[in-house]
Task: structure prediction
Amino acid sequence: MKDLLADASAKVDEATSLLRELVEMESPSRDELLLDRIVDRAVQELERRGATVERSPAPGYGSNLLARFPSHNPSTQDQDPLLIMAHLDTVHDAGTLSHFPFELRDGFAFGPGAYDMKVGLVIALMALDVVRDTGGGWPHPLTFLVTCDEEIGAPSSRAIIEREARGARGCLVLEPCVPGGAVKTRRKGTGTFVLEVIGLPAHAGIEPEAGASAVHELARQMVRLLDFAAPELGTTLNVGVISGGTRTNVVAASATAKVDLRFFSDVEARRVDAAMRALTPFNPRCTLRVSGGADRGALERTDASAEMFATAKSIAARFGTTLMEGSTGGASDGNIVSAVGCPTLDGLGADGGGAHTLEERVRLDDLPFRIALIAGLIAEPWSSRRGPTPENSG
Ligand SMILES: [Zn+2]
Result:
């Protein structure tokens, strides 16, 4: 195990230069051309390491990649793979590099998308090399799923993620760790609701009583719906956008609120959903319409994912590091994986900070440990969720 850490340390220069190259290829979500260009580069790296790569074009978004690596053990070739996930899109517009270039400074690598999460793919590639160089190989097939639309909620890759997660024995997600190094065993799920109020317009001075103000109704509904939150359970609501009315002297005929929901359990998501749909107008001459709902389920901590964390913790301990466990209110593709019942460890990427800002940075002295940790996780014989097949049960 010590060897893994030494080998991982020897990969840092290579990792840093590949990270520079990937960061300098800008790749904002929905920029099909730029995403296809960086995906081409990822294909080269994956094929060079022996993967069979399937590329699914996603018009308007880029391409999604499935790279399959056969098991090093011939008798486990047909077993369920371990799934490893990364995304190549970023939240940074094309041109960001001109004022926020890739830079090595004060022990960090700065640059758009460096931390979230180009470094994640780099770490996984280096970890593969380390496992192979130490001669062990991996005991089951590995599937790398590299997507192009995580930052916008996986519109083109969701079906692929769900299908691969259903067939996998477990999933490692290389999103950034919690700042300070903890991996993520829980992530909140997300939802969006739109509450529309339809009122009756009227002159605000001549006959206000003939109208029914949609704006007034919406104001009362907002107070009511904010009570659906349960912060002690992690359930929060944010009315992020409101609109309505036309002029001060007109009783408003329509008004709309857009509401963000976050939750740690699907039970809570269903509770809020039911409450939203049961809203009734205070003013009977107003009509309410509720649309939307939960979008990415919560990444829930299960017995199986807790077991994965325990394994990761014991691998980390062999490198002298105490691996911590954490949670976040932000969702990732890990939520989609976990929602179909696949045990998931998320936030396995490098330490750093400033995700989604012009302060994005990766802590360089964390790279050896992260590469070694992923190498250890890849080399680990994970039990199959389906149990051994009769031929292999010996
Ligand atoms: Zn990310």
